[in-house]
Each structure stands twice: as structure tokens, then as C-alpha cells.
Amino acid sequence: MTTFSDFGLSSELQKAVSNMGFEEPTPIQAQAIPIALQGRDMIGQAQTGTGKTTAFGVPLLEKMDLQEGIQGLVLAPTRELAVQVAEELNRIGQVKGIRTLPIYGGQDINRQIRSLKNRPQIIAATPGRLIDHLDRRTIRLNNIKMVVLDEADEMLNMGFIEDIERILSDIPEERQTLLFSATMPKRIQTLAEKFMKNPELVKVKAKEMTVTNIEQFYLETHEKQKFDVLTSLLDIESPELAIVFGRTKKRVDEVVEGLIKRGYSAEGIHGDIPQSKRDQVIRRFKDGTIEIMVATDVAARGLDISGVSHVYNFDIPQDPESYVHRIGRTGRAGKKGLAYTFVSPRELDHLKIIEQVTKKKMVKKPIPSYKDVIAGNQEATINKIMKVIENNDYSDYKRAAESLLEDIDSVTVLAATLKLLTKEPDVTPIKLTAVEPIRSRKPKSGFRDRPRSNDRGRSKDFRGKDRRDDRGSRNRKPAKQK
Ligand SMILES: Nc1ncnc2c1ncn2[C@@H]1O[C@H](COP(=O)(O)OP(=O)(O)OP(=O)(O)O)[C@@H](O)[C@H]1O
Ligand SMILES: [Mg+2]
């Protein structure tokens, strides 16, 4: 078994890792860290939630020098991910005194320019905003020793390729380049190898593309039923934290509105929501102020929020890779998670394609009945009561309880209490704008190698803008999309 001390790390990094509370390296860390430490270019592929950030973070931080200015660059497809990666690198880098600054669109650029005066050694950036800084000469990349593309396939796929090439052209050729993702379609790998030097492919072998600790279900449901099915499931399962993925921004807004009408604490996140609000939603979701985050695919990649027990694909994702990443927001670091995908009858073929690519069958679940919901709500009440008992938090009510029990039998009193505390299923009518089902295209040979599906055309708006809205105001060529 590999341990962190087998890597021959500096004492600072060794200490940093033990401060993180990591007892042993995950498989991708065990395989990737030694290769990256040797200075080799590398493509790292391992399932979601298995510690890829630390797999590149440790060698990256090991190579940083306190004195030399910006020497490390991590690129990420979304703003939230850039922030998260910077936070993790700062946690690990603290012992050595290495600072990482997140650079992302939607945040005041002058504030970023001021923060750059603190001389960070690493930048974790979204491509668009980084290019703004390069154009303004507020960031220079001529000292960069190592570049990491986190969620590389996504960035190359979604039309960031020109941006990436532009950024890489500013970085000395002797640099080391690392690519990480849970998915790496072959054609993207081929594309990536163009700007790498003889890269080593480090792939954690697994039978399935998804981790086994996520239980995967699907429900066959007509478009019109979906919302009721969602709230029934929420009632039955009382998730600690849940992410609901919708296909478009409008869809996300409508689902949030519906959930709030039915009394759930939910907020949405997508590319048209101002960044300060997006940051707030993530904060409130992390601290449990809201229990449900409704999102487009902008939240599908990389986000590591502990406590996400459930993922609901309110709309089936466009492609298998998106499915893998979306459900990977739960079941992280060995924890258990549940994933539900809603499929309309005409989308069943599309579901099959996803299953073929992920090599994992989803289990069919029946549509929950009214009775199931009542039972679920009762169980939720009982759990709450048990928690109060566990916390020994009821002494003020003891006398009242004793006096009630003098006149009425205990079962009657308790049943009435349960009734009072149990949420009745809320049937406030909610009407969503219908979305067209996703049409499948039978996979020809090598499905994963073909360009992304034609379905994307219609949703160009939400995917494109979500990913590229951090480019600032300059007019750049739109992404190539079929
Ligand atoms: N060696 C380790 N031991 C225990 N926990 C770890 C270890 N390494 C990382 N983790 C934790 O595992 C969680 C997932 O890590 P991380 O976000 O890096 O996953 P990932 O592989 O990048 O996933 P994704 O593909 O979704 O981006 C984090 O909370 C991280 O702190
Ligand atoms: Mg990651």
C-alpha cells in the first residue's frame, strides 16, 4: 500500500497532507503524484470525488518557490470551480506559505488586480478572465513552470480551445502540463496531446465510469408529472442536501419557483445569475441554509460539497459525460449517494446510450404514490423526534407531557402529535414550460469519439453562455457547435 511518505515529499508538503487529515493517498493520487513529481506531462483520469485536486495539487505546490512570482496555473471551466480549487490549494499550500489566487469572471477586475499585488505563486482561473488579464498585462505567464487543466475535456469540448491555445502560447515551452478529468473521450485526448510533451496516461482502472457508492435509479415519467414526482421524492427521502439539474436556465428558474411555492428551501444557479448571487447560493447551500440547489450543467463539474446526499436529473443530461459528472456531485470521498434520473418515454433510448457508455445500469423505480409520500413525511417527523430525544432537548416539555398523559392514553397523544408535526403533501399546482425530449442517436462505432450530440444546438444558449460568460465584453469567435 502506498502512503504519502512514499512520495519523498518535502517536510512542508508532508505536514500539509497530514494537516488535511488524509491518511492514505487515493488510487489516482498514488499513481499520479510520483509521475508528476518526475516532471512528466500527464493525463490523469479517475472517477468523480476521488481526490484529483490533491493529485495535481501536491506536485504543483511542491514545485512552487516562495520568491519567484506566478509559477503555477490551474485552469477550470467554471468560476465556482476556480474558487474551490484555489481554496483547496491554499489549504494545502499554507504550511509552505504558497498562495493561490482565484481569477474568474463576474468579479470586479480591479479587486483582482489589487489581490495580485500580494504576489500569489499560483493562479486558479477561468480562461476568459485570465485572457482579460493577459490583455491588460496585469498577469504575466512567462514564469509558469506547471499548468493544470482541471476538467480538461470540458474546456476543450466547450469551445475554450482557442482560449487555451492563446493562454498556453504565453507560457514557456519547458513547462509541465497536466490534464485531469473523470472523463476523457478519445478525441479530446488526441486533441490535448497536441500541446503536451509525450504525456503519460494515468487512468485508474474501474469497471464502471461512475463510483460504486452512488446508487443510480431512473423513473419513467411524462413531462407533466415530473414536478410532482420530484417533490414526492424529496418528501420521501428528506435529502440532507440535494442538487436538481435542469436543462435550461428558464427551467432552473421555474423549478426553483415551484419548489418555493411548495415550501422547500431552494435556490438556483446558472449563467444568467449575477456572480455575487451565484457565490451566495453556493455559500448558503454549503452551510445548509438552503437544502436544494437547482442548477444547469454549470454546477455539474468538480464541485465538492460535502453533505450532497441526492442528485436529481430533472431533465436527462445531453450526453453520458455530463451524466457522470452530474451524479458525481454526490458519493464523494467514499460517502454514499443517490442519483435519480427522470426519463420521458421518448427518452428511453437516450438512457440506454448513457448506460452503455458508463457501463452501469440504472435501476428502475416506480413513480411514488400518495401513500408513499405520507409514509415518507411521517418517517421524517419521527426522525426529527428521535433527534430531539438523542439531544436530550425536551425537559421543558416533560411536565406538560405528564399532565396530558393523566387524561389521554399515550398512543392517542403521540398520534395526534405526529399528525400535527407531519407535513401534508403540498399539492399547490405548479406548471412548468414543457421541454422537448432529448432524441437519441444510436451510437455508431465508437460513440464517444464522435463530436458532441446534435441535441446541443437547441441548448446552445444555456451551455454556451454558462461556460463562456466570463469572457468579459470582448467579442470573440463563438464556440464551434453543431
Ligand atoms: N487521500 C484522501 N483521503 C481522504 N479524502 C480525500 C483524499 N484526497 C482527497 N480527499 C477528499 O475527497 C473529496 C473529493 O476530492 P476532489 O474534489 O479532488 O475529487 P475529484 O476527483 O476532483 O472529483 P471531480 O471529478 O468531481 O472533480 C474532497 O473533499 C477531498 O478533500
Ligand atoms: Mg475535481
Please indicate the percent range of residues in DSSP E strands (runs of 2 or more).
Answer: 5-15%
Radius of gyration: 24 Å
Rounded average pLDDT: 90
Q: Do you know the CATH topology of the largest domain?
A: Rossmann fold
Number of helices: 18
Number of strands: 14
Can you describe this structure?
- The chain is of the alpha/beta class.
- Helices cover 41% and strands 14% of the residues.
- A seven-stranded parallel β-sheet has the order 3-4-2-5-6-1-7, with helices on both faces.
- Strand 10, helix 12 (275-286) and strand 11 (292-295) form a beta-alpha-beta unit.
- The site of magnesium ion (MG) has 4 residues, from helix 3.
Question: What would you say about this model in short?
Answer:
A motif (Q motif) lies at residues 2-30. It catalyses: ATP + H2O = ADP + phosphate + H(+). 41% of the residues lie in helices and 14% in strands.
Could you name the key traits of this structure?
482 residues, alpha/beta, Rossmann fold, 2 domains, seven-stranded parallel sheet, 18 helices, 14 strands, disordered C terminus, binds adenosine-5'-triphosphate, binds magnesium ion, DEAD-box ATP-dependent RNA helicase CshA
